[in-house]
Amino acid sequence: MNTAVWRERATVYGQLMRVDRPIGTLLLLWPTLWGLWLASHGRPDWLVLGVFVAGTFLMRSAGCVINDYADRHFDAHVARTAQRPFARGAVTEKEALLLAAALALLSLLLVLPMNGLTLLMSVPAVFLAATYPFTKRFFPLPQAYLGLAFSFGIPMAWAAQTGEVAPTAWWLLAANLFWTVAYDTAYAMADKPDDLKIGIKTSAITFGDHDVSAIMLCHAVFMALMLGLGVQQQLHWPYFASLLLSASLIAKQYTEIRTRDRALCFKAFIDNNRVGMAIFAGVLLDYLLFPLSR
Length: 294
What we know:
mainly alpha; 12 helices
């Protein structure tokens, strides 16, 4: 292949991996960082941190490739996805599967220096990421399954940092699962008319006319669990201030999703990046300002 062809293939593969759309990586990364900072009391091992930041990017990229492969016969019929590589015939099934396998292999190589428990937990993590796209064919709440996949970095990071998975890690996983259902249902609301036509199952369809109420209820459970976690971990005002800021950001999302306007629902989904970032900033500041109170 000449240089132009290689460049064209690299562009297509980057689109499959959503390199140009980092929101998914960020929504996966923030909870992993919450867990790592809590597990280490604000002093994470730098190798573990590097492995999980890189691994988050690689696994999210692999998940996107598998998602497009699973949806290859549907994306052309959805307005938002009509220009994805499969939908426009720019990539073959074999290319996509090889790319996903390469990304998964790189993720495995990253985890190899970690302890045995972390390696063991990487198996269900990969399984969840690889199978999520197919749950949209039969499971009425695929967003809950995605919540598990997007939360599994929390106990993995805990295991890598401490050699065990404390109950707090599972508490945080549960909180993040509710948050994922909330923001991904808003995302699904943007595609609801198209998904109804092609027969895809999503929480936005399952919740029906109660979709907005269900989203806000999931956000409320998420915030309640995060508040309880802060009390249990004896965190200080920076953390609780970050929850207050996050609650105000979520309240603003309500004004957007209640319109059920597709563009505003998608904007509400994107805005959850600021929620995740605000909470991480609160955890980070808490351990920086109160290092001696642990």
